[in-house]
Automatic annotation (TrEMBL):
Reactions this protein catalyses: ATP + protein L-histidine = ADP + protein N-phospho-L-histidine
EC number, UniProt record: 2.7.13.3
The name this protein goes by in its record: histidine kinase
Keywords: ATP-binding, Kinase, Nucleotide-binding, Phosphoprotein, Transferase, Two-component regulatory system
Entry coiled-coil feature ranges: none
PANTHER family associated with the record: NITRATE/NITRITE SENSOR PROTEIN NARX-RELATED (PTHR24421), NITRATE_NITRITE SENSOR PROTEIN NARQ (PTHR24421:SF10)
Gene Ontology molecular function: any one: phosphorelay sensor kinase activity
Pfam family of the protein (one): HisKA_3
Domain Signal transduction histidine kinase subgroup 3 dimerisation and phosphoacceptor span(s) in chain numbering: 126-188
Amino acid sequence: MAAVFFASGAWTPHQGWFAAGLSAVQLVPLLWSRRFPAAVLALVTLATAGHLLLDHPRNAMYVPVLIALYSTPQRGLAASAALAVGAAVFPAKGPLDGTVLAVTICAVAWLLGAERRRALADRAERAARRLHDTLAQTTAVMLVQAETLRAVGDLTEADRERLDTLLAAGRGALTLVRRTLDDLHEDAERAPDLAEVLARLRTAGLVLDRDPVLPELPRPVRELAERFVAEVAVNALRHNGPGVRLRLDVDAGARLTITARNTLKAPPSPGSGYGLAGLAEQAAAAGGTVSFGPRDGQWVVSAGLPAAATRSRTGSRAA
């Protein structure tokens, strides 16, 4: 970056040491642009504006501002920096070749950085969903099996203590998963293998009235639908234990509606439902809805998702 800056003539010896100092202030703070993006942008912008006003401006003079803008998430600060650069080049280059060009290039640099930050946030969100879809579901099955063994198994007192330790570790793991998801949300690529998830849950004691058969859907909607089915199946088993019967109804049309019902043996534990809350957010972003709650002695969860531009094909296969 420094080589390009000086090779373009942004600073030459005849400009003097004051201009050299401004050039250093333009370049050196960029080393900390990722750690302190706002402060670096403000400092680099002031130095760049002074340098542009000091001598006949060259476009390469405000390249450091572009780099700082790329790393800065604050929209207001970025706009101020772009306007400051545009004002500094106006006396020498005029409104079009100077101000408009500089502001436009600054806006493009900030937008490219914003797109990069959005992509990174999406990657973190997908990682969070993938973590929930795999580790949390598998841990829930292990806990159900261990709780069943403790309730009906012919165990010694030492064996029960070992199981209690296992159950405590499993519940702690689920708590850690939720905390990790919260951290990632504040800041994979595919939905879980639905057939594999349902087979594993059946082995653990879930009874399915029907296997859900989804219509042809756009890939993002299908992945969301499969994640919804996996989540409600895991929750039914985790909250009600082996032998719980889950009914899944699929209705396809202009909108895809998936409704899950199971007998409510006990009220959901406080703090449960992270997966459903996350699915509700995803569904809302896709133009859909997710609702859940007790109804007539059953726990009912329903998802409505857009199914436009798809060929509807409804049905279910006996379990």
